[in-house]
Amino acid sequence: MAGELKNESTLKGQLDAVQAGAAASKGSQNWYTDLAAFIAEVKAGIPDKLKDPEFLRRLWDENPVAATGMGSVKMAPALSDAGFRDWFSAELVKPLPTEPAAIEAHLTELYNGLRDRLKVLCGRTPRLKLNRVLCSVYPEHFTTVADPGKLLFLHKEMGGGAKDHPVRAHKTIRTRIDALLGPVSAEDPVGLARRICLPWMLYDRVSDEEPSDATENPSETAAALKPLPAALRRKGLTSMKGGLQTLLGFLPELNEGVSKEEFADIIKQANPELAPSSLITNINVVSREFDLCKRDGDTYRLSARGINLLETQDPDEFADHLLTKVLGVDHVLKALEKVPQSKAGLMAMLQGVHPGWTTDFAPSAMLVWLNSLGLIEPDINDKKLFQLTERGKRWAELVTWEPQGLPKPMETVAEIQAEVVEKVQLPSFEDLSKRLSELVAGKLVLDQSLVEQLHAGLWFHPVRHFAVLTGISGSGKTQMAQNYASALCAAQADNHEHVRIIPVQPGWYDPSPLLGYVNPIQDSSYRSAPFLDLLLRAAADSENPYVAILDEMNLSHPEQYLAPVLSAMETHGWLDLHQLGDDAVLTPKRVRYPANLAIIGTLNMDETTHGLSDKVLDRAFTLEFWNISVQAFPGWTTSALAPALREKTQAVLVALGEALSPVRLHFGWRTIDDVVSYLAFHAKLAPNNEAALDHVIYAKVLPKLRGETSAKFQKALQDTHKALADHGLTRCCAKVKSMQEDLVVSGAARFWR
Fold first, then answer.
1. Count of domains in the chain?
2. Rounded to whole angstroms, how far apart are CA atoms 246 and 240?
3. What are the helix (H) ranges across 208-342?
4. Which residues pair with 501 in a beta bridge?
5. Quick check: 545 and 424 in contact, CB under 8 A?
6. I want to staple 667 with a disulfide (CB 3.0 to 4.6 A). Which of 323, 426, 508, 671 is the partner?
7. Residues 532, 715: Cα–Cα separation, whole Å
8. Domain span including residue 255
9. ∠ at Cα 192 (190, 195), nearest 5°?
10. Is the pTM of this model over 0.70?
11. Contact indicator for 77, 58 with CB cutoff of 8 Å
12. For 412-421, what is the mean pLDDT?
């Protein structure tokens, strides 16, 4: 939130993190060296070279304090003006006062003089270049945060005033950082360069913008705009009455900070006819589509872009954002750069860019916005055609890439199959079955029909290999998944190279537990995850199968933590992981979803889990594990129970399974194994205690009994009571009898009451 860096300990913690991360990167080290050399060159050139055209050109146009971005103001008109050169030279040779207040006043007057003269000579104020020049001439008093909006954003975060002059903002930021980190020796030019670069890295850390590439020199990173892939861009621009003028009207109040309710009132005042349901949409237009404000807790405040726009009122402040992050803007400008076009032609082109725009609404809204921003206008010779304005031509020159649209979604399995080049080599089903039988021999009995369904359900689709195993707890779902995966991949049980069991945890609200995340402490590192490691191995080894098992996958909402995976597996699409440099981390920026990766999810349905949404079910092949055969349990033949006790135990469990299965309250092999193991252990303690079976059934089977009045549940309790009574389990009989009485009295019964 605004002012959070006002606290000294918080600011120190952020500075420590910056120095351990971004400030130590290779790109930053190169920046310090270049900047120190340039500052020395500038110092040596004053006053002798202040009228040298080459020196002035380097000072204003090749200054490594910061990147200028695209569309920077041309300095030639000012630098070729003798009057400006004389004034500039005279100002720079004036000695600085000795008192801090007088220094600030002197630099503020110089800043204002440059701003006013350059606006007249260049047509626009080169505010970023102005700050770069002053930083290189007066490095003890300025920072490398040359963008005024970003400078004031950081200044406000550190407790400064929203309306403070840029000179005061620079000086205040430097003073606070120097006070915390100590002064820099005059004999250490690289140390001085590092110190004036720290504020930029601090801004980069505390702002909501994407972090800079740690491998690049920050003074060079804006040499060209870098467009986001079409799939990651915002899909068009939402219509807003009044367009640019409405946006400009919001800025003064946002500069002071407003609550969500106050923001909605401001929007309502601008458009009284707006429906209440559209107020949040308009807030999103301002904050996200145009990046003019950020939400800090309960308060909306201007972003760096918003601060700049408030001062300049210039639509060019949107250029980098709209061209690289909003789908369709670059298409329109490049199309009109060639020849004027009709509105119908432009809308048809935009519908080709985004196949989901099946009506004219979204394309028409975009054209209205581009007109409001002064980028397009009716052709002077034919009002039915649109042409670029001068601003539009400047923006079009910034588009140095071929604009990309969204692909038409592949709809059929055959279409996707034709797209997938890599063919995974699966074992024959005969070999798979043989391996599986060897793995489970003496431990597990698998239903051959379920194995066939699982194998076919996973691999009939060329990319989307996703199955969900559901059923009662302890029915062998995880064992089935693990042994099938091991047999498929010819892997050992403890081999994680091809098969990985991933226990899903409650509280997975986003994909980071599966796909990893950028380390918030050290921005230049990426924290991977077991699922991502397996996925990357699969992508690098496309001919062999890999299997991820999401155990108890519905402890969290799968449609949340699996969202990008579900989308990518549908069309063999890409997973975007991060925006760090290619050399900054080992994890790639993006990876195409591998066609040789299968995902098997296991789930239980109870009070602690979540149901599956249609988005998940539409992509998954679902198998149920409900038919449990007590007699087929392999542990009967290997148990240490006395024959009579073994037969009685089996008979009781068979009868209970038959009684409870109609209401799906029966039990799996895990429960059977627990009962048998308990009895075997108890027999060593008290060989003649006949109550042991009564106790273990009470502890392992009855606690799951629950239900409400229905013919099925009443009969289930009745049959359960009979099975227990027939075998003399008196304690269990008493418990079930009390549950039957509860059912009559209250209409519901449960073990726990």
1. 4
2. 8
3. 243-256, 260-270, 279-284, 304-312, 319-325, 329-338
4. 549
5. yes
6. 671
7. 49
8. 230-398
9. 110
10. no
11. no
12. 58
